[in-house]
Write a structure and sequence with these properties.
By secondary structure, the chain is of the alpha+beta class. It folds into two domains: 34-82, no CATH class; 87-197, endopeptidase domain like (from Nostoc punctiforme) (endopeptidase fold (from Nostoc punctiforme)), CATH 3.90.1720.10. Helices cover 25% and strands 24% of the residues. The chain is built from four helices and ten strands; from the N terminus they run αββββαααββββββ. It has a six-stranded antiparallel beta sheet. A two-stranded antiparallel ribbon has the order 1-2. Strands 3-4 form a two-stranded antiparallel ribbon. A hairpin with a 3-residue loop joins strand 1 (32-37) and strand 2 (41-46). Helix 2 (87-96) packs across helix 3. Residues 9-30 have low confidence and may be disordered.
């Protein structure tokens, strides 16, 4: 009698082990796709995971959905959304798009500018309204020191009679004077009068 019990236990154990191995060691994966991790290497990742066949209510395979990971190339994964430029970056981009446009006293764009006209027009492209003259622009927004400058800040020179937009790396984009197009220049090339964060 003990021998029959042992044989039944062994048979049940063998069936259980076979079932467990079928669950844990599925059939070979469907087509694999490479995942490239910079500095690490490429890895094959299956498109699907095969599940044991014949189990009621359980599909034969499930698709693999890989999340988007910055810096990791995943075939078939949607491209990450491009970062949206904030208003200050839109101001800088607008001003930089006018490089080479002529200086015309009293002009406020879109094809010719004086200094405050360029600043006003660039801010308008980001949906921000600014006063028209450089003196008024020097009194708008919050005052900041030269060492606090960030791209998009309004920078004033010559006691407030000239304005431009800080673009980073110690430079300002501005419509300087008659005969000179809109250009980028070092802040240190003009006497700094103040800066404003809008």
């Amino acid at each position: 009698m003990a021998t029959k019990t042992v044989k039944r236990a062994l048979s049940a154990g063998a069936v259980g082990a076979a079932t467990l191995s079928a669950l844990l060691l599925p059939a070979s994966p469907a087509l694999a796709q490479p995942v490239i991790i910079p500095g690490v290497g490429a890895f094959e990742v299956p498109d699907q995971i095969q599940l044991p066949a014949g189990i009621p209510g359980v599909p034969e395979s499930i698709p693999v959905q890989l999340p988007a990971i910055p810096g990791v190339e995943l075939p078939g994964a949607p491209a990450p959304a491009a970062p949206q430029a904030g208003p200050r970056q839109r101001v800088v981009d607008a001003a930089m798009s006018r490089l080479g446009d002529p200086y015309v006293y009293g002009a406020a764009g879109p094809n010719a500018f004086d200094c405050s006209g360029l600043v006003q027009w660039s801010y308008a492209q980001a949906g921000i309204s600014l006063p028209r003259t450089s003196y008024e622009q020097l009194s708008t927004g919050a005052p900041i020191s030269e060492d606090q400058l960030e791209p998009g800040d309004v920078v004033s020179f010559y006691g407030g009679s000239h304005s431009g937009i800080y673009v980073g790396d110690g430079n300002v984009v501005h419509a300087s004077t008659s005969g000179q197009p809109v250009k980028v220049a070092p802040i240190s090339s003009m006497p700094f009068a103040g800066a404003r964060r809008i």
